[in-house]
Design goal:
The structure is a single chain. The chain is an alpha+beta fold. The chain folds into three domains: about 45 residues; about 200 residues, Oxidoreductase, molybdopterin-binding domain (Sulfite Oxidase, Chain A, domain 2, Alpha-Beta Complex), CATH 3.90.420; about 120 residues, Sandwich (Immunoglobulin-like). The strands form six sheets. Strands 5-4-13-8-9 form a five-stranded mixed sheet. Strands 6, 7, 10, 11 and 12 form a five-stranded antiparallel sheet that branches. A five-stranded antiparallel sheet has the order 19-18-22-23-24, with no helix packed on it. A hairpin with a 5-residue loop joins strand 23 and strand 24. The longest helix has 17 residues. The chain starts with a helix and ends with a strand. The structure holds the ligand Nc1nc2c(c(=O)[nH]1)N[C@H]1C(S)=C(S)[C@@H](COP(=O)(O)O)O[C@H]1N2 and molybdenum atom. Ligand MTE binds next to strand 3.
Length: about 450
């Protein structure tokens, strides 16, 4: 390695240690040490030079800087770095009998910002992912309309378009946690949610084209998958803000998310967001769905069921620290990071507690804070190394406060699977590892 390169590295290191005001004390010590060492002739701490893989570390020039990289045609469709193999959707094998009628989970702790990359969006299918040729796919609108219509994909794309960033959450998110803390990972306690930019045509535009008859009050939406999944949606919601979508995060919807067209029902439970949408029928009452009466209801302590709990109440979770993101530098500075969302609108505030809910601090919300979208929150924190309990609670623009698990159980018992939006508690252990716990 040429000496001028070495000098350059030394100058950088010295300059950094002289001018920066690091918040991270470990880093500060390293930089100061290096600066002193550089001045006295030895460039870096010997331990660093001997570290495994050190030939690619400063002051050496790494291998990849000495050769040409791959050309522009190597990957006509890009994929993540091979070093990010761990960032994938995961399922829980014992949860479902088959992989066709199943679910996997978004790796929330690995993500930054509010947009879920399309390839990492959790999938929930009742009969697997169909492979649909868009040229042979049609959307039918019929029932209580003046003009029944059949749309090709080209027809749908021709209409005035609209885009919106929206979360989508399966109401079974967190459902494994009703009776006690079970899944020791944020991916599994909260990963049945994703947030994408969705583009399509407002459903109200298509319904106006078909001419809604005055007696119509409900809409049936049906998918083209093997389950021919159907859901009943009140017409008022259909006309309010639903979108018939053909694009997700700027490109055509992924097969797993409903290619070539899906219904987005902002803020409402995941199952009404029918994928592979083929039919919309208007009627004067809801249709009977086995799933809606037996599964998508919340069984209450008295044995009665809460029906048509369509809107997803406010929820939040700390994604760092969490079981997958331990405190690996010992005591000192960490940024607490997390996500909050509400099907009722915008997140107004997120509070964070680092002492099991005795004291709460207001987190910073990353702009833009969008209605019915994931909202990123952050709070600087200095960990004293003692075991502690970390929690977040979301408050939405309606004033709704995310309940504690105690409050939610008092209201709903433990027989539900659905709509478990209680505050999550992570226990930080003295060695920095983190576990899923419930405090009652
Ligand atoms: N046609 C069809 N639509 C469907 C489903 C399905 O199995 N078939 N699953 C529903 C359920 S239960 C959920 S939670 C969401 C999941 O959407 P995602 O796979 O994009 O995450 O899709 C909904 N739409
Ligand atoms: Mo779902």
């Amino acid at each position: 390695m040429a000496t001028h390169d070495r000098n350059e590295v030394a100058r950088h290191v010295a300059a950094m240690s002289a001018t920066s005001q690091p918040v991270l004390s470990a880093r500060r010590r390293l930089l100061m040490g290096a600066g002193v060492a550089a001045a006295s002739g030895a460039l870096l701490h010997p331990k660093l030079a001997l570290a495994k893989g050190s030939e690619n570390l400063p002051p050496n020039v790494p291998d990849w800087t000495r050769s040409l990289g791959t050309g522009v045609n190597e990957k006509p469709y890009g994929v993540p770095s091979s070093f990010e193999k761990n960032v994938v959707r995961r399922n829980v094998e014992w949860l479902t009998a088959t992989e066709q009628s199943s679910v996997n989970f978004t790796p929330l702790p690995e993500l930054d910002g509010i947009i879920t990359p399309s390839g990492l969006c959790f999938e929930r299918h009742h009969a697997g992912v169909p492979e649909i040729d868009p040229a042979q796919h049609r959307l039918v609108i019929h029932g209580m309309v003046a003009r029944p219509l059949i749309f090709t994909m080209d027809d749908l794309v021709r209409f005035p378009s609209t885009s919106r960033i929206l979360f989508l959450e399966c109401p079974a998110n967190g459902g494994m946690e009703w009776k006690g803390a079970q899944m020791d990972g944020c991916q599994f306690t909260h990963g049945m949610v994703h947030c994408c930019e969705w583009t399509g045509v407002a459903l109200s535009t298509l319904l106006a084209e078909a001419g809604v008859l005055p007696e119509a009050k409900w809409m049936l939406a049906e998918g083209a998958d093997g389950a021919a999944m159907t859901r009943s949606i009140p017409l008022a919601k259909a006309l309010d803000d639903c979108i018939v979508c053909y694009a997700q995060n700027g490109e055509r919807i992924r097969p797993e998310q409903g290619y070539p067209v899906r219904l987005m029902v902002p803020g409402w439970e995941g199952n009404v967001n029918v994928k592979w949408l083929r039919r919309l029928k208007l009627g004067d009452r809801p249709w009977h769905h086995r799933e809606e009466t037996s599964k998508y209801t919340d069984l209450m302590p008295d044995g009665k069921a809460r029906q048509f709990t369509f809107t997803m109440d406010a929820n939040s979770v700390v994604t760092a620290p969490c079981p997958e993101k331990p405190l690996k530098f010992g005591k000192g500075f960490y940024e607490i990071r997390g996500l909050a969302w509400s099907g009722h609108g915008r997140i107004k505030r997120v509070d964070v507690s680092v002492d099991g809910g005795n004291n709460w601090q207001t987190a910073v919300l990353q702009e833009p804070v969008l209605s019915k979208a994931l909202t990123r929150f952050r709070l600087p924190w200095t960990w004293d190394g003692a075991p502690t309990l970390v929690q977040s609670r979301a408050i939405d623009e309606t004033g709704y406060v995310q309940p504690t698990i105690e409050q939610l159980r008092a209201a709903r018992g433990v027989n539900s699977i659905y709509h478990k939006n209680a505050q999550q508690t992570w226990r930080v252990n003295p060695d920095g590892t983190v576990n899923n716990v419930q405090i009652l």
